[in-house]
Structures are given as structure tokens and as C-alpha cells.
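Human: I'm a chemist; would you kindly supply sequence and C-alpha cells for a protein?

Assistant:
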Amino acid sequence: MSVMQKIKDIEDEMARTQKNKATSAHLGSLKAKLAKLRRELLEPSTGAGAGGGGKGEGFDVNKVGDARVGLVGFPSVGKSTLLTKLTGTMSE
């Protein structure tokens, strides 16, 4: 089944589906599928695994100057211990 046929099928199903509280989740998933197919139609991917991390332009960050880091997590999971081991200093 082609992408155009899938788009048409989803649009037909959305037209047939009544809009109410019980069908809003189904309509939302149909809209998401429709958006994904339209995006695929505009930008066709090449091969398997073309979703992310492909051959794109990257960026480089120079390692100079000071940095400020915040660790977020549950209590008593070792945030301060990790920071102490990585930096060699005591955290507050």
C-alpha cells in the first residue's frame, strides 16, 4: 500500500468517525499517523534507521572556561557521590 493510499484511508476513517469524548483519543492517534505520513511524503527517508543520528551537520563545543551543572534525580541515588568522583571536589 502506498503512502498516498494510507493517507486517503486515514482521512476517510476520520471522516466516518463521530467526534465525541469517547472517540477523541482515536482521532488523536489518527491525526498523529496522518502527520507522520505527510512528513514522510515530504521528506522520504532512505533505508533502515534513517530516523535519527544520520549524516547531518553536527556541532563542536570548545572545552574552555567554567561550567555550571545541575543533577536532578530522586533522593539517595548517588548524585553527590557521582559529582565528587567526577570532579574530585566535595559538593554542597
User: Anything to note?
Assistant: The longest helix spans residues 24-42. Residues 3-42 form one domain. The mean pLDDT is 82. The CA atoms of residues 50 and 56 lie 11 Å apart.
